[in-house]
């Protein structure tokens, strides 16, 4: 047992001195303070916390029974032993009736004091046991009340407020507050409070650092993540900076409990008691458990709020989509959708759930939609174009995608997907089809109505040239050749454009030599050199016809702009990107014009069509190749085509 402070009251000072000394000799645990009257005893009791009172019976002004009644009014359970020379049974009976813990007659010899010391120890031990049990029950009831409040709380602020209110309403606690550490200032900022406060928090500064304002229970609890106490504010040097303000409000001890969950500090609970040494080990343990419950509740609400915010964000994001979003189960029943889906379908949110998805499609579309659902459930995904029937009865074409949806265990939940309104795309496809048909009609007209007369002109021209030589005939021949090339280019643009057929292995050198023979005139001095830098010519993947068309237009462009005595070199590129180049010794292309040469209609030659290099660019793009114009090693023009795929 810890030390026992005994208040001995007797109107005989000499007896008090002797009795106190003898009692102290009987037990090392007994510490004796004395009072020579009932009034003096009550004054000392008001300023000191004692464990037991010993009182004489017969004293002037107020006897022992009257003193006992006065003590019981304030301290119902405090051990009180009437130690008197009056030995009547009436006195003993009155003492017990008034609530005396024990009654003992004075006597001679130390044996009487040994008996008194023993009764003091027994009475105090029982008192402390009962008091501790009552205190623990009080704290348990407090914890239970707070647990109920935590269950009912719907927000973090409500948790903090209810905890503080519940604690401050429980004796002997006078005040409670919950704060959070500001990471920038290291100050512990109050968030909620209740009880006898009277602006206490406005007058103090509490920090979590190593300064004087961080040495109290609050700062210690934050730094060390454990409960910390100041059991005697009056004498605790660590509480000096707040002592005066605390004592003025009746605070005698305090405890600070960190509110921590999974290494995350959600705050700090500070509790103030009207009694010194109010926070024994058992009570600290219960307060620590309470802190765990509060922090767990805070964590749960934080997670709930985060999930709610995330759900709101997802709902808003899905509702902002112009596309339909949906989730259906494996039976094809709508489980969730966005606002666009519900609006088009014409159902309120509460009616859209459990709706059969097939009912939203025209009768003739349902079989295909059902097959697409089954395909997605089986293979994992599917895509289908179908008409969605709106609330107004309008049929709007959509492209629906569906992906298999499973839970965290991999079990099938249903399908998730989107539906995109393809009305504009359908309209555009229709327009493109119309344009294609018009182009095909145009190509037929060019081929028949222009080419046939042009062939007649070329035939008649050949007959005239065979009969006579005339400079006008040479001009006509040049013009008809240009017309022939324009017709060929227009036909290619109208019919073939960027459509690429099957890719086959093609030799760059072989294809270049074949294209050169078709373009060059044997009577000219133009020369072609092929050097792709390999003993075995590398093969690339290309559409053979389109690749030939690309080479013909490049060679024809070179001859048109560099002259009929031009030298052309074809070589391979096998560095960072696989490809080839075609360069010449002509005048070259100014740097500022090298991007323009691929534009339709751009030409600096009178005989050029302005379409040749544009066709080259289209063929390259259709294959996924890159083409650029630069300066050649011979000072002329160099075209580089890269991004080709080699055949292994």
UniProtKB/TrEMBL annotation:
<dbReference type="InterPro" id="IPR003018">
    <property type="entry name" value="GAF"/>
</dbReference>
<feature type="domain" description="PAC">
    <location>
        <begin position="382"/>
        <end position="434"/>
    </location>
</feature>
<dbReference type="InterPro" id="IPR004358">
    <property type="entry name" value="Sig_transdc_His_kin-like_C"/>
</dbReference>
<dbReference type="GO" id="GO:0000155">
    <property type="term" value="F:phosphorelay sensor kinase activity"/>
</dbReference>
<dbReference type="Pfam" id="PF08448">
    <property type="entry name" value="PAS_4"/>
</dbReference>
<dbReference type="Pfam" id="PF13185">
    <property type="entry name" value="GAF_2"/>
</dbReference>
<dbReference type="InterPro" id="IPR003594">
    <property type="entry name" value="HATPase_dom"/>
</dbReference>
<dbReference type="Pfam" id="PF00072">
    <property type="entry name" value="Response_reg"/>
</dbReference>
<dbReference type="InterPro" id="IPR050736">
    <property type="entry name" value="Sensor_HK_Regulatory"/>
</dbReference>
<dbReference type="InterPro" id="IPR029016">
    <property type="entry name" value="GAF-like_dom_sf"/>
</dbReference>
<dbReference type="InterPro" id="IPR035965">
    <property type="entry name" value="PAS-like_dom_sf"/>
</dbReference>
<dbReference type="InterPro" id="IPR003661">
    <property type="entry name" value="HisK_dim/P_dom"/>
</dbReference>
<dbReference type="InterPro" id="IPR000014">
    <property type="entry name" value="PAS"/>
</dbReference>
<protein>
    <recommendedName>
        <fullName>histidine kinase</fullName>
        <ecNumber>2.7.13.3</ecNumber>
    </recommendedName>
</protein>
<keyword id="KW-0418">Kinase</keyword>
<dbReference type="InterPro" id="IPR036890">
    <property type="entry name" value="HATPase_C_sf"/>
</dbReference>
<keyword id="KW-0808">Transferase</keyword>
<dbReference type="InterPro" id="IPR001789">
    <property type="entry name" value="Sig_transdc_resp-reg_receiver"/>
</dbReference>
<dbReference type="InterPro" id="IPR011006">
    <property type="entry name" value="CheY-like_superfamily"/>
</dbReference>
<feature type="modified residue" description="4-aspartylphosphate">
    <location>
        <position position="56"/>
    </location>
</feature>
<feature type="domain" description="Response regulatory">
    <location>
        <begin position="5"/>
        <end position="121"/>
    </location>
</feature>
<keyword id="KW-0614">Plasmid</keyword>
<keyword id="KW-0597">Phosphoprotein</keyword>
<dbReference type="InterPro" id="IPR036097">
    <property type="entry name" value="HisK_dim/P_sf"/>
</dbReference>
<feature type="domain" description="Histidine kinase">
    <location>
        <begin position="445"/>
        <end position="642"/>
    </location>
</feature>
<dbReference type="Pfam" id="PF02518">
    <property type="entry name" value="HATPase_c"/>
</dbReference>
<feature type="domain" description="PAS">
    <location>
        <begin position="310"/>
        <end position="380"/>
    </location>
</feature>
<dbReference type="InterPro" id="IPR000700">
    <property type="entry name" value="PAS-assoc_C"/>
</dbReference>
<dbReference type="Pfam" id="PF00512">
    <property type="entry name" value="HisKA"/>
</dbReference>
<keyword id="KW-0902">Two-component regulatory system</keyword>
<dbReference type="InterPro" id="IPR005467">
    <property type="entry name" value="His_kinase_dom"/>
</dbReference>
<dbReference type="InterPro" id="IPR013656">
    <property type="entry name" value="PAS_4"/>
</dbReference>
<dbReference type="InterPro" id="IPR001610">
    <property type="entry name" value="PAC"/>
</dbReference>
